[in-house]
Every structure is written in C-alpha cells, then in structure tokens.
Amino acid sequence: MIKIENLVKFFGPKKAVDDISFTVSKGEVLGFLGPNGAGKSTTMRMITGFIPPDSGRVQVGEFDMLNDPIRAKQLLGYLPENAPLYADMSVYGFLSFAAELRGLRGAARKKAVQEAIETCFLEPVAHQTVDTLSKGYKHRACFAQSIIHDPDYLILDEPTDGLDPNQKHEVRSLIRNMGRRKAIIFSTHILEEVLEVCTRAIIIDRGHIVANGSPNELKAMHPNFGSVRLNVYGVAEGDVRGKLNTLSQVERVEVIKSTSEQVKVRVYPKDKKDESFPTLVADLVTKSGWKFDELSMDKGRLDEVFRGITLPDTVKKSSKEGPVVTVNV
Amino acid sequence: MSLAVQNVYTIAKREMGGYFSSPVAYVFIVIFLLLAGFFTFKVSGFFAANEASLSPFFVWHCWLYLFLVPAVGMRLWSEERRLGTIELLLTMPVTGWQAILGKFLASWIFLGLALALTFPMIVTVNYLGDPDNGVILCSYVGSFLMAGAYLAVSCLTSAITRSQVVSFILSLVVCLFLVLVGWPPLNEMLSQWLSPAMVSAVSSISVMTHFAQFQRGIIDSSDIIFFLGLIFFCLFTTNVVIRSHRAG
Ligand SMILES: Nc1ncnc2c1ncn2[C@@H]1O[C@H](COP(=O)(O)OP(=O)(O)OP(=O)(O)O)[C@@H](O)[C@H]1O
Ligand SMILES: [Mg+2]
C-alpha cells in the first residue's frame, strides 16, 4: 500500500502541492490526472523520495519514505517524466546498471535484464547507445528500468508519452496486467487511457485534489449524466413538456430545440443513477403514440468533466458562472 | 561486500565506463602526458639540470591540474542534472553519499590512471642516474592526493550548476586560489603587510604548501589530513548542495 498524507510542497512562494492525501492498495491502478502544472510530477517526486515534502508523510509498504528511504525505495519502481537516461550507455548496459543498483547480481541480473528487454520490446536496440535511440525507444528503455526488479509499487509519470499507437496499447495492457498484483500510480493526459486501465482516478488542479473516484464515478459527475435525450416529431412543445412532467421520476425537462414539426428535449431524472429511467421515458413516449427518432441516455464524458473542474486560468477569470461541475471530494 | 560498498562500486563502474566509451578519456590522457612531458623537458630543462630527480616533473603538477582536473570533474553532477538522470539515480535505493562517493572515486581512479601512465619518467631517471625512489614514490602519492583535492572541488562546483562551462570556470578559480595562497612570490608580497605567522597561516591552506612536503620526500600526517579533509569537506558540501536542489 502507498499511503500519502497531507503532502505540501512550496517552490518559493508558490504552492505546487497543497495538502494531498490518498491511498493506493495492491490491485489498484490509480490514474493521476490534471492540467499542466497541476502538481502531478511534483507529487510523484515526493512519493519516490526524490524531493522532500515541506510537510506530510509518504508511506510505501510498511516503510516511511522520510525515515527509512532506502527500504521504501527498494519497493518502488519509478519512471520519471521525460524518461531520463545515461546518454553514453547501451540499453543493455543501462538496464544492467539499474538491476545492479536494485541488488540483482549474476544470473538473476541477466535474467531480469532479459525479461525487461522482452517485456518492453527492446530486442532490436538492446546493444544500441541510448543517445541514438528514437524518443519512443528511449521511453521504453526507461520504463524497462522501472520494472526490472518486479517491484510491488510502481510510479509512472506519463508512461505512454511519445509512444506509437501500438506501443501505447501494449503499455496499457501491461499496466493493466501488472495492476492485478501491484499498486500502480500513473499520470497521463490521455483520458481514454484512464477509462481503459484505471480502477480509480484522481484529478488534481493547482495542487488540490478536485476529484477522486472510479472512472465511472467521475463520468457520473457530468451534469448531463443519466439524462435522456429525446427527439419527437409532430407534437407541440407544451404537450411534450406537460406529458413528461407527469412522470414522478422526472426532475425537469429542458427544451433544446423546438420547431413546428420537431421538438428536441433533455429529460433529467431525480435520481441520476436510476438505470430504468430511459425505459420509463420510452414507455411514456410509445403510450402517447409520439413519433420519435432519438431516445438515448447520456453516459457522461470524462473530457467534459475534466474541463469542468479544471478550467484553465484564462477561462476562469472571464467566466462569471464558475465551474460547470461542482464536486464534493 | 556490504550493500553500501556494492552500490558505490556499481556507480563507480558506470561512471568509469562513461569515460572510456567516448574518445574524451583518451584525448585527456594524451594531453596530460604531452603537457607533463613538455613542461618537464622543455620548460624545466630536465636534461640540462643534470640531476637524478623528478622534481622538474612534479613541480608543474599543481598548475597542470588546474586545467585538467576541472575538465574531468566538471560534468560529474552538472551532466546528471542536465539529463535528469539524477532523478533516476537518487530514487534508486542508494544514499546521496554512496552516489557522490561512487562518482568521485571513479574520476579519481581515472586521474590516478593518467598519473600512472607517466611511469616512463621513473624509468628514464633510473636509467640515467641514481635517484631517490622513495622521494619519487612520495611525490606520486602527494600528486595523487592533490588531484583528489582538485577533483573534490570540481565535484562541488559541478553540483552547483547545470552548465559544464560554468562548473569548469568556478572550479578553476577555486583551485587557483588554493594554489596561489601558497605560491612563494605571492607570500613574499603578503609578508610586506602581514606578520610572518599570518602569512604562514594563509599559505597553510594552499595545496602547494602541502604538496611541497611530499616533493621533499616527507609524508606527514598533517599533509595527508589536509588533502583528505579538503576532499571530505567538498564532498560533504556537494551533498548539501544536491539536497538543497532537490528541496527546490
Ligand atoms: N524545481 C522546481 N522549481 C520551481 N518550480 C517548480 C519546480 N518543479 C515544479 N515547479 C512548479 O510546480 C508546479 C507543478 O509542477 P509539476 O511538474 O508537478 O506539474 P505537472 O502536473 O506534472 O504538469 P505537466 O502535466 O505539465 O507535467 C508548476 O507550476 C511548476 O512550475
Ligand atoms: Mg508532469
């Protein structure tokens, strides 16, 4: 288990990380999201012991990162942002070096290096100098380093950055598979990745956690989540509205478009999680004998939720109505 | 081997591999040998002196090292910070000290190797005459210690900045200072204003003063302690500097 309590980090007067706490257990893959400069990398650097927090605690397994850094670090694998590498080494030499620092010797080291090379598809470049690798291969070499000792805890800062679509896919399934046994924290700017591999996601903005939940829970934060869109022909707007409001489960009806022949509405349920709601609306529509060509439930969209809770400074200053989504963490 | 020694060894081995994977190391060694030869034979007039001793060779070391040692040490930590590999290294289960020591020792051994390659000098004087080999050995020890002291200064300056050039210049300036305060012409000048006790206090922080003892064939614990102390102080400060960078 990785446990983080009340982490705070200042850079000069600037608070990069402001009181972040969370826990990740084995079997979990935590997606770490947030706009540029939100404090994701800074948080990860504090978790891995690279930078000391100004206050707060990091616990890895049963070890405290501040009091027992060596043993805590032994349990961790870390892929830093931008995948730094020693430019003058070969991929094989670099991985051997990493394995050796991880305490692997002799045959065990050879085996670990070989496995990491295979897992990360590095065979074609194993004896090439790091300097001459393409960006994606560099990233994979550094990724290989992070898993070489099969750690229980993995911290990956943008692991799919710079990879081609096939490799992105491979790395995602690798993370998903490893996540069954390990606790993994990874940051990303690709929201589909979160839906695909994470069991849980945290969104941070300006050093604060603004959302924490499973991908589906995050999607449910969308203001339209659970609402039903309906497109009816040949009925007056007032009739549509009146009929729908007779349903006790309906909270309100919003008219999106209304012409003489077509009425487009969005129907919001009282209980957003009520899965039978679309059926109820459909029953009513068929009973009334309306002609319709669209009836669908909104599942929420992660990108819009993300935008809603992490508006960039420029937008926030100009918009008076504030964030689109309100959250209680 | 204990874990700490293992880690120092692994880090030193990687650093050493880095020297020899590029032509820089060979170029360095060749330049060192050429310069050492040039100063010994041309400037000091080794043959003209007609003396079976290597003092015309050693007397140049504190000046030669001024340029050569910072060239070796300038990249130690600045490169690590520039590439971002410091983040990899220091999130491995190693302590800051192990990393500093590993990198320092690798470079020191490299300098030792360059120094050892001057052995034809020993062969030559022994062939030509009958030198005091004890004094020669003693001078080599002193030279090696002095190289270590310069290197520790470079190690510190390389931790201060990401730029190798700045690191080189800083290190050169500091080392130059450590030489000049014991340089006889400067000491004579100082003695016009300062009491003899103060002049000798000033010159006692000079690497030149302490190296001179070795060149006379005297191995005194105070000289050894001076060099090792200077090395320790610089490496300790390096650790402090690296910590403060990480703290942001
Ligand atoms: N060493 C540093 N010195 C000063 N400020 C820093 C330092 N490192 C990070 N910051 C600042 O802290 C804030 C958080 O940075 P961080 O790198 O954690 O963001 P991030 O969420 O990883 O962003 P990105 O998505 O762009 O990677 C930023 O405003 C950044 O400018
Ligand atoms: Mg980042």
Question: Average pLDDT across residues of chain A?
Answer: 89
Tell me which CATH architecture of the largest domain in chain A applies here.
3-Layer(aba) Sandwich
Beta-strand share of residues of chain B: under 5%
Largest sheet of chain B: none
What is the helix fraction of residues of chain B, given as a range? over 70%
Contiguous uncertain segments of 5+ residues of chain B: none
**Can you tell me the CATH superfamily of the largest domain in chain A?**
P-loop containing nucleotide triphosphate hydrolases
Shape of chain B: globular
Would you state the CATH class of the largest domain in chain A? Alpha Beta
Helix content of chain A: 25-40%
Number of domains of chain B: 1
In percent terms, what proportion of residues of chain A is strand?
25-35%
User: Number of helical segments of chain A?
Assistant: 12
Query: How many strands in all of chain A?
Result: 14
Unreliable stretches covering 5 or more consecutive residues of chain A: 316-324
The helix-and-strand class of chain B reads mainly alpha
